[in-house]
Amino acid sequence: MKRPLIGITMGDPAGCGPEITVKALRDPELYRRCRPLVVGDAKMIEDSIRILGAQELKVNRVSDPEEGSYRWGTIDVYHLDLVDMSRFEYGRVSAMCGEAAFQCVKTVIGLAMDGRIDATVTNALNKEAINLAGHHYSGHTEIYADLTKTDKYTMMLAHEDLRVVHVSTHVSLREACDRVKKDRVCDVIRIARDACLRLGIQSPRIGVAGLNPHAGENGLFGREEIEEIIPALEQVRAEGIAAEGPIPPDSLFSKARGGWYDIVVAMYHDQGHIPLKVLGFVYDKEKGKWGAVSGVNITLGLPIIRSSVDHGTAFGHAGQGVQNEISLVNAIDYAITLAENQGK
Q1: Which long-range contacts (CB under 8 A, 24 or more apart) does 42-46 make?
Q2: What CATH number does domain 5-150+302-340 carry, 3.40.50.720, 3.40.718.10, 3.20.70.20, 3.40.50.150?
């Protein structure tokens, strides 16, 4: 099978994206599975090579994906001259870096939409920085949805065999409650089923969370379950989808982690994010730093493949070569799997 061509954005250049990209691409195994193409400013990748002392690596600047060598030892960079190094500073929020991060995302989406790459992987951007640059989005997911003209989409987080999709994400908790509507819950359950099939799960089992404590306790703690979630479940079951719920959120994730469900439908951002990050983010108290920051963020429902790291820019440690690349490696793994199963 031809190795899929994966476009990897550098993220906000003032953050950890460039250096964890170099760390990930130091592994020869990655090149046996895919053709990685970094989309960003080659100067930042070269500086990360310097910071990490990775003299065994060199940068190949390209203006077309076909120009890449895709061999270990060479990092192919779709070069966008975005960063003025005389004004650049690691760990600082700036409009210049926000613009650079946005242009990387816009470019990688364009390459994928044109069929010139097989999948996209994104490093972290800074929401304040991209807004300073005049791009008023709350995150990657919304940029992808806008630039691909997609209406029905959702975020999936994954850590090992625990997968979670969301009815809503970057909105206030008050608005999140208002967004729990039958049609939206149905859409997210369908997207979750399709994602599992593309990951090779033949008969997906879907656990659907309640919104309220104890899944509403038959209306005692709220009526969203009765009026919106249960009717959605009845609808998708009639379509042959194996979905169960509404399940009290305080027990659902333990069941999913134990293998009861292949994927969970969460009703709002923190309901899904907290259990994933409790598992994937491990802080080493003795060393005073994160021992592991794993987990993958995938946008489902798009016409192209997009996976991402599930952490921020780490401005406080950027440019020091200390950040862990495991989340990026996991995101690339997911992108490869989805690309290989594209159209199946």
Answers
A1: 42/77, 42/79, 43/83, 43/85, 44/10, 44/13, 44/18, 44/83, 45/10, 45/18, 45/21, 45/75, 45/77
A2: 3.40.718.10
Is omega for the bond preceding 246 within 30 degrees of 0, making it cis? yes
Q: Tens digits of per-residue pLDDT, 166-185?
A: 999 888 999 999 999 999 99
CATH level 2 (architecture), domain 154-276: 3-Layer(aba) Sandwich (3.40)
Nearest to 263 by CA among 280, 244, 235, 237: 244
226 DSSP assignment: I
CA dist., res. 274 & res. 339, Å (int): 28
Q: Half-sphere exposure of 299 toward its Cβ, with a 13 Å CA cutoff?
A: 25
DSSP 255: H
Residue written as tokens 């404590």? 213
pLDDT in tens, 233-271: 999 999 999 999 999 999 999 999 999 999 999 999 999
